[in-house]
Design a protein that fits this description.
alpha/beta
């Protein structure tokens, strides 16, 4: 029986672990519950609470749920652009939990819940997406000056609060090196969904099929894919007549522009919420990850490498995977000419393609271990408390 208890706070649940956010949450919970009794508090999202109780049975985890206020003032603040909301009732509820149980520390998934945690608590926060990086990339990639101005206003409105919340965190955790957060503990993303399923045999594939995996309701994903379909895809079709593109998302895209681009091309196939992701990797030769903004690191790159599939991505997308940058299985560039040439060259050279697939398979196994990842996390928190 685990003797120490911790409080884990998140704005969504860990199940089902299909998108990158839930995969990391699931892995963090699995790691922490190996040593601690965990009270996992889900803010809002009652459906997540119900699913977690069903899909994460554990004697060491108790799921809790709280619905925050959604009054007029909260709606006004959201419309103005405040991204770090504070709920007095939620703060009081968390205070009662902390009074009832002597938690070793409070673990916050992302930084937003930190504002709700009583100030006398030891706080560990998995920051994951750095607020400043998110908004600076959004501003630089915005298409209009009005959009740039609005994003700049939101950034300025919340920057001070973000820095104040950072200062409250005893142990910040990041997925890649963040120069601004010098005291952070680096805990990179792994291909969690696949690595926890056990060993996987290498399966080469020389098919002229590209694979994209990502949540297409997330704007950086949909915008990056729109860029690819407009700037790169038409050139690929001209040079590789039988090329195919498979898109996998857990939800249908919300962008009408993206949907139109997909539906207008018979060589593009969209799959939603697939049961067997490995099967789609097995039948693809190459994975694409066109992403130009956001925060954290792209977990789908680690996932592709684990499946033994080379990846082509952007200078932003390679964040967190720099040690593999521009070798035979992880190509990086922001230019549509570069993307077109790299894809054409690798798909036409079967020997090179299969060799790069095997190298990605072997490199990922040398790099990624859930046991090492879990032990690193537990050892770090043990040093502090």
């Amino acid at each position: 029986m685990n003797s120490e208890s911790i409080l884990f706070i998140a704005q969504s649940g860990p199940c089902p672990p299909r998108d990158g956010k839930r995969q990391r949450t699931y892995a963090l919970l699995q790691a922490l519950s190996a040593r601690y009794q965990v009270d996992f508090l889900i803010i809002d999202h009652q459906s997540d609470f119900l699913i977690a109780q069903e899909q994460f049975p554990s004697n060491f985890v108790r799921f809790l749920h709280f619905t925050s206020e959604t009054g007029i003032w909260e709606k006004i603040k959201h419309k103005i652009g405040f991204v770090f909301p504070h709920s007095l009732k939620l703060n009081q509820y968390i205070q009662r939990l902390c009074s009832q149980t002597d938690y070793a520390f409070v673990f916050s998934r992302y930084i937003q819940p930190v504002s709700q945690i009583p100030k006398n608590q030891n706080i560990v926060a998995d920051i994951d997406d750095d607020f400043e990086e998110i908004f600076k990339t959004r501003i630089s990639n915005a298409k209009s000056w009005s959009r740039k101005l609005r994003l700049w206003q939101i950034f300025q409105l919340n920057k001070l609060v973000y820095n104040q919340l950072l200062a409250r965190i005893a142990l910040p955790i990041v997925v890649k090196i963040e120069p601004k957060i010098t005291t952070a503990f680096l805990l990179p993303n792994l291909p969690f969904q696949l690595i926890l399923k056990g060993e996987y045999l290498f399966k080469p594939c020389s098919a002229k099929t590209l694979l994209y995996v990502g949540k297409l309701t997330y704007s950086p994903n949909s915008q990056g894919l729109i860029w690819f379909l407009i700037e790169v895809w038409p050139q690929l079709i001209q040079q590789i007549a039988d090329i195919k593109l498979i898109l996998i998302s857990i939800e249908n895209p919300q962008s009408l522009k993206l949907l139109d681009l997909i539906k207008s091309d018979s060589q593009i196939e969209l799959k939603i919420n697939v049961d067997n992701l490995e099967e789609y990797y097995e039948h693809a030769g190459l994975v694409i990850a066109p992403v130009f903004e956001g925060g954290g690191s792209n977990i789908k790159i680690a996932e592709a490498l684990w499946q033994g599939r080379p990846v082509i991505t952007t200078e932003f997308g390679v964040s967190g995977y720099e040690e593999f940058k521009n070798n035979s299985f992880l190509k990086v560039g922001n230019n549509e000419i570069f993307w077109t040439n790299e894809i054409v060259e690798i798909l036409f050279d079967r020997e090179r393609l299969v060799k790069s697939q095997r190298l990605s398979f072997e490199a990922s196994r040398a790099k990624y271990s859930f046991k090492v990842w879990r032990d690193d996390l537990l050892n770090m928190v043990s040093k502090n408390w």
